[in-house]
Amino acid sequence: MLDKIYVALIHYPTYNKQHEVVTTAVTNVDIHDIARICKTYGIKGYYVINNLVAQQNIVKRVLRYWLQGFGVEYNHTRTEALENVKLVSFIEDAIRDITESEGEKPIFVTTSARFHEKKSRTFEEVRKIIRSETRPVLLGFGTGWGLAEEVVEMSDLLLEPIRGVSGYNHLSVRAAAAIIIDRIISERSDLYG
Questions:
Q1: Are 7 and 45 in contact (CB under 8 A)?
Q2: For position 58, which CATH number holds?
Q3: Is residue 169 part of a domain?
């Protein structure tokens, strides 16, 4: 069912260039742009997941400006998009929040720029599951150099990578979120079969 889909922007645990597990930095544009994507596609909630207090303070300041400050009068459509953003420290917090709200644990779908032989599912497979499943769904998007393996292991499904027409595969998380959400939720998702 498309009325119980949630999105998570995951900053921890992720990899850096050296394949070390780290917490990545929040970017203002990721908060805004993914919130706008979520609003456009009717996503029920958008979680920003970051375990560092300094980074959480940045998210809180952005949200406060657009939900309570001058931003409300300046751009009401931005305010409307950011109303469904929730800040949590860990993935488990988002899953717990959805479970409490929906009465059942969500199917956790992660994304990756890397193909995993045993776990990757096609866009068509995930689209069919999401459209037929009655449980809520949480789509997890990684930052930095991708989600740590422990996140992939805890997920129920792993979506195949987005393939362009070249060997280059380093999209921003906002661009990847837009493409993936459109491919699996859009009314015209039959175009992506």
A1: yes
A2: 3.40.1280.10
A3: yes
CB of 51 within 8 A of CB of 88? Answer: no
Residue 74 CB contacts under 8 Å (≥ 6 apart), including other chains: none
Question: Which of the residue ranges 20-29, 73-82, 107-116 has the most confident prediction, judged by mean pLDDT?
Answer: 20-29
pLDDT in tens, 52-87: 999 999 999 999 999 998 888 898 899 999 999 999
Beta-strand ranges (E) seen in 23-174 are 45-49, 85-88, 107-111, 120-121, 137-142, 157-159
pLDDT band at residue 188 under the 50/70/90 scheme: low
Residue 193 lies in a domain: no
Q: Per the structure block, which two tokens stand in for 7? A: 């999105």
Look up residue 147 and give its amino acid: L
How far from the centroid of its chain's Cα atoms is residue 30's Cα? Answer: 10
CA distances (Å), 17 to each of 20, 110, 144, 145, 163, in order? 7, 20, 8, 6, 21
How far apart CA 51 and CA 87 sit, in angstroms, is 10
User: Which amino acid, 53?
Assistant: V
**Domain limits for position 150:** 5-188
Task: Please check whether residue 64 lies inside any domain of the structure.
Answer: yes
Number of structural domains in the chain:
1
In a domain, 17, yes or no: yes
**Residue 13, preceding bond cis, omega within 30 degrees?**
yes
DSSP alpha helix (H) spans, 26-75: 28-40, 53-67, 71-74
